[in-house]
Design goal:
The chain is an alpha/beta fold. The chain contains ten helices and ten strands. It binds adenosine-5'-triphosphate (ATP). The site of adenosine-5'-triphosphate (ATP) has 12 residues, from β2 and α1.
């Protein structure tokens, strides 16, 4: 579905990603884990066309997409939910969802409401008055309104209470079960690896380890890096 080969990218003269290669296959959750500043967010920004790679190639559904505009990628089915959520604060829940469907002529709120029933209850509430967890759900729901083939989620559970974190991660599993690929960035490696089909550990802009979520969760190097603060 998505593949990056030898991708290097960064900000101005500063290179953050160094020859990064990774892939997401149809209908799988792939987690990208790594310390603060490892380049996880930069990876998502590069895939979604916010940053242009200085080297390497990105393919989505069989076509080269590096250098393509973000709006074209959304139309092609690649949708990014940034950590900062970027909701339309003064608009209602339902108006935010409607904005997410700008690529489509049909509006189907029902799937989003089935996944996040609280959004149906609050459909007329102003988005900026929702709790942090509800705003996360709305950001994910708005992205789903575009009917993505691949959803990229940046830290969807950061700052949420454990019960809400569980609800968001359960929704990610349900989204995958509907056939949508998910590229998930999480600082909480334990949680991300628990739901990931496969994962990559990113260090200084390169993938230093990969495997199934379960393999990486029991890998001594991953455990040492995340439990002892060491480096891989
Ligand atoms: P975090 O969880 O802290 O966001 P991350 O793995 O997502 O970590 P990135 O946000 O991709 O890491 O940051 C990687 C590097 O790029 C860091 O050194 C950061 O300072 C730098 N960086 C991030 N955003 C910008 C920007 N807009 N301009 C310049 N440098 C940036």
């Amino acid at each position: 579905m998505l593949s990056l080969v030898g991708v290097s990218a960064g900000y101005g003269g500063s290179r953050v990603l160094h020859a990064l290669s990774l892939r997401v296959d149809d209908g799988e959750i792939v987690a990208l884990v790594g310390a603060n500043g490892a380049g996880k967010t930069t990876t998502l920004r590069t895939i979604s066309g916010v940053l242009t790679p200085v080297a390497g190639t990105i393919e989505f559904l069989g076509s080269r997409v590096d250098g393509r505009r973000t709006s074209d990628l959304v139309r092609a089915g690649l949708v990014h939910v940034p950590e900062e959520r970027a909701l339309f604060g003064p608009l209602t829940v339902e108006e935010n969802l409607r904005m997410g469907a700008w690529t489509r002529s049909v509006l189907d709120f029902d799937e989003v409401y089935a996944l996040f029933p609280i959004l149906a209850e609050r459909r007329r509430q102003i988005a900026e008055t929702l709790s942090g967890g509800q705003q996360r759900m709305l950001a994910i729901g708005r992205a789903l309104m575009a009917r993505p083939r691949l959803l990229m989620l940046d830290e969807p559970s950061t700052g949420l209470a454990p019960k809400l974190t569980r609800a968001v991660l359960d929704a990610v599993l349900a989204i995958r079960d509907r056939g949508v690929g998910v590229l998930l960035v999480e600082q909480n490696a334990v949680q991300a690896l628990a739901i990931a089909d496969r994962a990559y550990v990113l260090e200084s802009g390169s993938a230093v380890l990969t495997g199934t979520g379960a393999e990486l969760a029991r890998d001594d190097r991953v455990r040492a890096a995340y439990l002892g603060g060491g480096s891989l």
